[in-house]
Amino acid sequence: MEIAVLTANSQLGRALVPELERIPGWRVRPLLRRDLDITDVTPIARLFESPPAVLINTAFWATEDPEPALRVNALGPRLLAERCAAAGTLLVQVSTDYVFDGEADRPYRETDPTAPRSVYGISKLAGEHLVRAAAPDHLIVRVSGLYGPGGSRAKGGTNFVSDMIGMARAGKAIRVVTDQLHSPTYAPDAATTIRQLISAGVRGTVHVSNTGACSKYDFAARSFELAGLAPDLHAITLADLPPLPPRPRYTVLAHDALHAAGLPSPRPWQDALADYVRWLGENGET
Ligand SMILES: NC(=O)c1ccc[n+]([C@@H]2O[C@H](COP(=O)([O-])OP(=O)(O)OC[C@H]3O[C@@H](n4cnc5c(N)ncnc54)[C@H](OP(=O)(O)O)[C@@H]3O)[C@@H](O)[C@H]2O)c1
């Protein structure tokens, strides 16, 4: 079975490629943006001259500028979905907790109403809807607070944890919000669960995050503790930040769809974070 991973150098793609390559009988086709721009029909048509059985789309554009956001995060997945539907390819579209408004007081289920507030969230939700409409054979995986080796290319090769540890090592004062709660997702753990979902033939929309929830402040504080750092850390609230772009206050994800498929939740966020901080120390990424 051939699985195309777009892009193989994204934070999640870097974890997916080795995770999928370990499975006997699975062949991974790693793709970069320079091989396939998802907003351009020509390279997409070229990919489907020899269609993969599965195409995982991690590509996205993190912006509050509506035009590129909608082009990359909505039009791109639609173009992929149309081709996947015609070729009988399963499209795995990676999405985000930012499709929710953040006003809930319990973890969001896959079936809960969406109401994104940011341009980025609106564009990712549009991508979800367009994939559902164009490709009946789809798997939409929503992750939250993604971090892992290599960092996010959209964030210049960093993520929240590597940023925090980098700032602490540089002796900077650090201000982090106490009233924004989420379920952080370690990319290698998400890759394992995506591999399990594909193996199990799951379809539809599935939340994938590490188990548990924390505020951004708690996440930063635990990162410093694990790294043996004691920075000048200050607790602030969302009200201390500029109002734009809107940040959902609460985006903890429930794992109903995973459990309905008989799959386990990824491990607790504290265990995943410990692995990543160890990895950062060994690889000098901060
Ligand atoms: N990072 C987070 O905190 C977070 C949180 C929740 C959900 N997510 C979702 O998780 C997924 C993966 O995030 P990530 O952090 O792993 O990504 P990432 O490391 O920031 O990488 C994004 C990738 O998208 C590629 N790309 C951008 N525009 C493209 C286009 N027009 N055609 C083809 N490729 C294009 C980039 O290529 P170049 O680098 O070559 O430009 C890059 O390889 C995304 O769908 C995102 O919405 C992420």
Automatic annotation (TrEMBL):
Pathway terms, separated by semicolons: Carbohydrate biosynthesis; dTDP-L-rhamnose biosynthesis
Q: What is the annotated role of this protein in its UniProt record?
A: Catalyzes the reduction of dTDP-6-deoxy-L-lyxo-4-hexulose to yield dTDP-L-rhamnose.
Q: What is a GO molecular function of this protein?
A: dTDP-4-dehydrorhamnose reductase activity
Identification of the protein by name: dTDP-4-dehydrorhamnose reductase
What is the species listed in this Swiss-Prot or TrEMBL entry?
Answer: uncultured Chloroflexota bacterium
Gene Ontology biological process = dTDP-rhamnose biosynthetic process
InterPro entries, sorted: dTDP_dehydrorham_reduct, NAD(P)-bd_dom_sf, RmlD-like-bd
**Superkingdom as given in the UniProt entry:** Bacteria
Q: Which CDD domains match?
A: dTDP_HR_like_SDR_e
What enzyme class is recorded for this protein? oxidoreductase
Entry keyword set: NADP, Oxidoreductase
Q: Give the family per the record.
A: Belongs to the dTDP-4-dehydrorhamnose reductase family.
Task: Give the enzyme's EC designation.
Answer: 1.1.1.133
Is Nucleotide-binding there in the keyword field?
Answer: no
- Does this entry carry the keyword NADP? yes
